[in-house]
Known about the structure:
The chain is mostly helical.
Amino acid sequence: MPSSASRAPxxxxxxxxxxxxxxxxxxxxxxxxISIWSLNFTVMKVGIAEIxxxxxxxxxxxxxxxxxxxxxxxxxxxxxxxxxxxxLFLVTAVLGITLNQLCVVYALKLTTAANVALLSATxxxxxxxxxxxxxxxxxxRRHWLSVGLGLAGVALVVEGGATGQTVGEPGPGGxxxxxxLALGVSLTAAASAVTIRRLLxxxxxxxxxxxxxxxxxxxxxxxxxxxxxxxxxATVSPVGWGALAYSAVLAGIVTNLLYFTGIGRVGAxxxxxxxxxxxxxxxxLAVLLLREPLATLQVVGGLVVxxxxxxxxxxxxxxxxxxxxxxxxxxxxxx
Length: 335
């Protein structure tokens, strides 16, 4: 017979079981979102082979903007925002959609989808550094060590990508332009994420995403207008249209809704762990489906980058305490 210390109230056991079931369901939701995102590297590579690289994201996020605007109007009644936040929305849209998508499509055009997937793992590193620069976070020695390790991994990936896998002209310093643009993907996404953090206290993720898509697509239109006008849409195959549909509907809308749902159930920190899988799955799918070559040096570099991201994870409460202490010290000096 179990002791009284080992017996739990029936209600408590039931509640615990329900929490476990809910968390298990959230894990599946998050895994589904990351899997769809991972395949998108390969899908976009296929899509931009038939549709102009600058026209592709206009269709992708134009569709996404319409759907998300409808979702937000149904959920929240409107897309309004305070005038003081106009600049923040503009910055996060231009960084997270306009510049980010230009980097994505041309990186995929100039290098392999596997390389882009590998280098996408650097986003958390860029996010931490930018957040530190603007004063939102405080990096300790462990984080700076992870940044250095991550940069070493990037160097290995870039060096591996320079061994005949990159198409087109080299970039600054003779470095592969495709890989530099892939780093631009992570950098713009990271800068946008830091900006979004300042909006999350006042708006839902759905409203932020909808406005980001609308504004970002509007800034893409002037750049893409010539390609949109000259595109021979009759020559686009069902595979090309299917790639666009997948990227717009599944990777652009469904994944974000799934990811926000998962965050709501298990929290942002636990959800972020799944992002580590995105690069691995993206590389695996690109190699399997596109038969892309992958140098040993690139694999090693990718593992180093992922290891650096894992190393950078710290107790958020500890970071919050250190940041609060630094702000208190500043306040004390000012007074």
